[in-house]
């Protein structure tokens, strides 16, 4: 069996070489001089005269780099062989496509030898399978031992006498949190416009931005920060590249041809990439999702299949990304996907199904993770006589924490508080006549004992809910509700003295359709985007007063910086005019404008979560004046520097003017004799006889009539 397997591989290699030979004449027709690459971009192909900076990729002489050997399998007879092969195929096909006839289990005397060969389409798939399945427990007596086929020759050549390996020179890693060390506590942002991608400091004290790094043709579609701001990703046809550090070096490359979408795990341990490929036939499009480990850059899992496997039945919106959603607990332990009548939870780093079975939920239509812990919120619609259900399920125990039955449900939407303390579920219900709907909210207090819940209904239940938003660091939320062009906005708190939800107040008739809370709470922007042409109201909820009302015409995006001190408003290329962004203070003062043609993206660089406890943060707020003295002096110094810089700029302009004037005066004096010579022949007699006449013209600008009472 083993020799037949090797013969198949050699034949495959020979066939591949024949195909390569037939393609040679075609390659000769290509004029390499006509191939133009974007300036400054090597497309991942280093020049021969460049120093090789990266570790040389492992090349195998045998050509079996895509083959793994799985040892410690059960030794069974011919009658059970097909069943074992089916189990092995199910396990190892999770990491990529296995070649036809690429799963081989040698036999001797009608009994398996206890090992198998698995041949993938490429070496990357084989490496992912090796990393994940080595040590996999098939049953109590059989734990997989997996090796690369090429490693056996290396093991055979291992010398009997130990030779200490050469110690490589230590190369420090890039400092991926360097921007957090800025003495002035500034934040960075990235913008993408035309063919340019640029990173800036927000130097709001100087009412300007300060360039950090820029590059043309840096990405082929878009850029994206990692959740903690350590890295910036660029997307290319060949895959994804990750950049970071003070010098913006490329840290890693992830191969995924045709990649379109990507998503990080919350703690930046993993990254998922997704591509869809149209079959150009009646067959559904193909979807490929790859999971990469960020520290090593290796692919550790791959999901392939028709798009129908990744889209819920009846969903007309197509593929909803992310297909796989990450749990909110520390360490990126779990991620999950929803399919027909079930939710499948995977655990890391093995990337295998939790407890080897999915969570069965009949008719499940929607689920979300709690942002701070491994709790699932799940919605199941009404089926027959069974009511609709909202359930909270703890992972990994799969124990149901709380559930609520609902009736006559039209649609629901789940809103988790960023701290995971609360869950609000907006429920649209049919009236008795089924001709209209009304809306209410189911509010869960997740962190309290037995997870109590209550129902919130608006005074006018038939009003349309335009927007809902939780206060990030607090216990309040806001709702825009109303059917007209100027809806009302109502604020509520979850911390009433009686432990119930309480209405704070309502703002009547506001030109707003979006809510943007400051990351620190307290302040909120009531924004009227799209049809409302960029109306902005900066509102202080603590004082319940408007700080500023302004406008950014045709504004499409509003983004708070991570500290809640500044906010950007953008007009992207969906509008042909007024592209660019404005920078504002938290209270609505315009700091500076930056126009950019064909403006695509504005992205604040996320900050690493604070290491301070809630108690320490509260203590800092109480003693803010003592801390602010240091920064007040820094601000005053910066103001003086800015004033002196302005004075220097004005002085330089004045000196430039005086120097130019002196040059012109000197030139005028030098040309005096020549001018007198040129006009000497002209008859200038009678010049003194000229008279000057002044003419006054009166014009009535306005007439006001007033009747005086006598």
Sequence-ordered SSE layout with sheet pairings:
Layout: H1 2-22, H2 24-28, E1 67-71, H3 81-92, E2 98-104, E3 107-108, E4 111-112, E5 115-120, H4 123-133, E6 137-139, E7 142-143, E8 145-148, H5 151-156, E9 188-193, E10 196-203, E11 208-216, E12 223-225, E13 232-235, E14 239-244, E15 249-255, E16 261-264, E17 270-277, E18 286-293, E19 299-306, E20 325-326, E21 334-339, E22 342-347, E23 352-353, E24 359-360, E25 366-369, E26 375-380, E27 388-394, E28 399-406, E29 409-416, E30 422-430, E31 437-445, E32 453-457, E33 465-470, E34 476-481, E35 488-493, E36 502-507, E37 514-517, E38 523-528, E39 535-540, E40 545-551, E41 557-560, E42 566-571, E43 580-585, E44 590-595, E45 599-604, H6 614-622, H7 624-670, H8 672-679
Antiparallel strand pairs: 1-5, 1-8, 2-5, 3-4, 6-7, 9-10, 9-45, 10-11, 12-13, 13-14, 14-15, 16-17, 17-18, 18-19, 20-21, 21-22, 22-23, 22-24, 25-26, 26-27, 27-28, 29-30, 30-31, 31-32, 33-34, 34-35, 35-36, 37-38, 38-39, 39-40, 41-42, 42-43, 43-44
Residue ranges: pLDDT <50 for 5 or more in a row? 1-37, 43-61
Helical amount: 10-25%
Shape: globular
Count of helix runs: 8
How confident is the prediction overall: mean pLDDT? 86
Number of strands: 45
Overview of the structural elements:
Helices cover 17% and strands 35% of the residues. The termini are far apart. The radius of gyration is 35 Å and the shape is globular. Residues 1-37 and 43-61 have low confidence and may be disordered. 24% of the residues are buried. Strands 20, 21, 22, 23 and 24 form a 5-stranded antiparallel beta sheet that branches. It has 710 residues and is α+β, with helices and mostly antiparallel strands.
């Amino acid at each position: 069996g083993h020799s037949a397997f090797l013969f198949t591989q050699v034949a495959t290699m020979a066939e591949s070489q024949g195909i390569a030979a037939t393609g040679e004449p075609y390659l000769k027709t290509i004029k390499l001089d006509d191939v133009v690459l974007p300036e400054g971009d090597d497309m991942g192909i280093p020049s021969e005269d460049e120093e090789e900076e990266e570790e040389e990729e492992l090349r195998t002489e045998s050509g079996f780099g895509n083959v793994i050997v799985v040892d410690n399998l059960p030794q069974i007879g011919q009658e059970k062989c097909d069943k074992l092969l089916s189990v092995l195929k199910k396990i190892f096909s999770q990491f990529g496509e296995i070649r036809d006839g690429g799963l081989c289990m040698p036999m001797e005397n009608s009994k398996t030898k206890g090992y198998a060969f698995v041949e993938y389409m490429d070496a990357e798939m084989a490496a992912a399978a090796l990393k994940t399945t080595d040590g996999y427990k098939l049953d109590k007596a059989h734990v997989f031992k997996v090796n690369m086929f090429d490693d056996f020759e290396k093991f055979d050549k291992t010398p009997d006498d130990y030779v200490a390996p050469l110690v490589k020179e230590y190369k420090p890693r890039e400092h991926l949190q360097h921007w957090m060390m800025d003495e002035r506590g500034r934040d960075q942002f990235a913008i993408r416009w035309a063919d340019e991608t640029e990173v800036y400091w927000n130097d709001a004290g100087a009412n300007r931005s300060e360039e950090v790094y820029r590059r043309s043709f840096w990405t082929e579609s878009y850029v994206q920060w990692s959740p903690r701001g350590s890295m910036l990703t660029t997307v290319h046809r060949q895959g994804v590249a990750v950049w970071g550090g003070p010098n913006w070096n490329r840290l890693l490359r992830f191969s995924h041809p045709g990649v379109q979408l990507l998503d990080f795990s919350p703690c930046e341990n993993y990254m998922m990439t997704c591509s869809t490929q149209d079959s150009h036939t009646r067959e559904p499009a193909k979807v490929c999702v790859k999971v990469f480990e960020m520290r090593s850059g290796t692919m550790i899992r791959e999901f392939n299949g028709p798009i129908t496997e990744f889209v819920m039945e009846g969903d007309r919106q197509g593929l909803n990304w992310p297909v796989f959603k990450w749990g909110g607990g520390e360490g990126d332990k779990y991620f999950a996907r929803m399919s027909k009548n079930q939710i499948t939870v995977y655990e890391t780093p093995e990337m295998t199904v939790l407890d080897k079975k999915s969570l069965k939920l009949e008719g499940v239509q929607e689920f979300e993770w709690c942002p701070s812990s491994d709790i699932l919120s799940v919605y199941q619609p009404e089926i027959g006589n069974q009511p609709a259900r909202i359930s909270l399920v703890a992972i990994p125990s799969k124990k149901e924490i709380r559930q609520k039955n609902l009736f006559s449900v039209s649609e629901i939407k789940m809103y988790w508080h960023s701290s995971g303390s609360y869950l609000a579920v907006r429920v649209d219900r049919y009236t008795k006549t089924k001709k209209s709907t009304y809306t209410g909210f189911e509010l869960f207090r997740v962190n309290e004992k037995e997870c109590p819940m209550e129902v919130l209904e608006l005074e006018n239940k038939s009003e349309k809910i335009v927007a809902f938003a939780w206060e990030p660091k607090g216990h309040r939320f806001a709702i825009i509700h109303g059917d007209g062009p100027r809806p009302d906005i109502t604020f509520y708190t979850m911390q009433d003295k009686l432990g119930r939800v309480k209405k704070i107040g309502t703002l009547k008739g506001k030109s707003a359709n979006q809510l943007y809370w400051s990351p620190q709470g307290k302040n909120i922007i009531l924004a009227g985007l799209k049809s409302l042409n960029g109306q902005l109201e900066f509102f202080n909820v603590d004082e319940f007063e408007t700080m500023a009302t302004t406008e950014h015409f045709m504004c499409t995006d509003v983004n708070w910086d991570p500290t809640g001190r500044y906010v950007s408003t953008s007009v992207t290329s969906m509008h042909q005019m007024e592209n660019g962004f404005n920078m504002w203070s938290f209270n609505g003062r315009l700091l500076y404008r930056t126009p950019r043609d064909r403006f695509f993206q504005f992205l604040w660089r996320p900050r690493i979560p604070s290491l301070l406890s809630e108690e320490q943060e509260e203590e800092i707020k109480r003693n803010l004046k003592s801390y602010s003295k240091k920064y007040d002096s820094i601000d005053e110094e910066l103001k003086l520097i800015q004033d002196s810089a302005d004075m220097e700029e004005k002085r330089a302009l004045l000196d430039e003017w005086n120097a130019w004037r002196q040059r012109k005066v000197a030139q005028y004096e030098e040309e005096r004799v020549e001018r007198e010579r040129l006009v000497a022949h002209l008859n200038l007699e009678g010049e003194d006889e000229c008279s000057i006449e002044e003419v006054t013209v009166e014009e009535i600008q306005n007439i006001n009539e007033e009747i005086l009472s006598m």
